[in-house]
Request: fold
Amino acid sequence: MKTLQKGFTLIELMIVIAIIAILAAILIPNFLHARAESQTSACEGNLKQLATALEEYAVDNSGTYPASFANLLAANGGVYLKVVPNDPAGGAAYALTVPAVAPCTQTQPNTYLITDGGNHDTTTTTSLPGKAGTKNIDYCSGSGILGN
Reply:
């Protein structure tokens, strides 16, 4: 007497693997884009944090701004800023330029410019004022966050 073996056929296994592969092909790009958007949002938050520290420094120092982030870190034992955050998208570290230069507009009184590492996904910066769809995000003292 022949006994029947229970299990899956090769065709059934291949169909399941194909369905999993299709789902992965759909989901992985969505996860990557969500990660890039979160990096851009975190960068905007970092720029605002740095700008706030600069403004606090200026209030305590008769309206003058530090020449670099190193000076800001050293001022008053790090009371304004403990550490300069890293750009979550990678690239170069945040840089401070005093006095401000382009892309800050001349119509606004811009005292300083903070630039990021310039490594953002261009699809995540399309809603920023300035140059839409760029890899760079800047913060001008009088204009706020800009795409550059």
